[in-house]
Write a structure and sequence with these properties.
Layout: E1 2-7, H1 13-24, E2 31-34, E3 45-51, E4 53-54, E5 58-64, H2 74-85, E6 89-92, E7 100-104, E8 110-115, H3 117-120, E9 124-125, E10 127-130
Length: about 140
């Protein structure tokens, strides 16, 4: 399982590791923060944290090499991050449109976000507009 989430602020990596353990209900699970995909640890949940430009400053890639997070969706993980850290997250909406994503806000509410196409061309993540209607999934 691989999950990608954009986060509006830098996060405390130790709290993020504890969040992953909490999702599983096992504080002894191995959660590693690695530099990139080439450093993934086989018997662990791996987190790659990459700073990006724009309104969303951290790109998190989660690699579940243990296969124990398969029941948790990207949106559910984003909601947990937003709730714990009081941040906003963007996750894929699985559409063919590369300029729309799900936006999860600080209250764990879900909206459709429309990204700024011009800024995205330079790998900068800015929300141009978001739906006014909360979505539930």
């Amino acid at each position: 399982m691989n999950v990608d989430i954009l986060v509006s602020e830098k996060l405390d990596s130790e709290k993020l590791k504890k969040l992953c353990c909490g999702l599983i209900g096992d504080n002894k699970v191995n959660v590693e923060i690695v530099g990139d995909e080439s450093e993934l640890v086989d018997n662990a949940i791996n987190l790659v944290l990459k700073e990006v430009k724009g309104e969303y400053q951290v790109y998190i890639s989660l690699y579940d090499c243990l296969g124990i997070l398969s029941d948790i969706s990207e949106i559910m993980l984003a909601k947990k991050i937003c709730s714990l850290f009081k941040v906003r997250c963007l996750v894929s909406d699985d559409s063919n449109n590369p300029f729309t994503m799900w936006l999860v806000d600080e209250n764990s509410d879900l909206f459709i976000a429309f990204l700024d196409e011009d800024k995205l061309e330079y790998d900068e993540y800015f929300v141009k507009m978001q739906s006014q209607i909360k979505k539930t999934l």
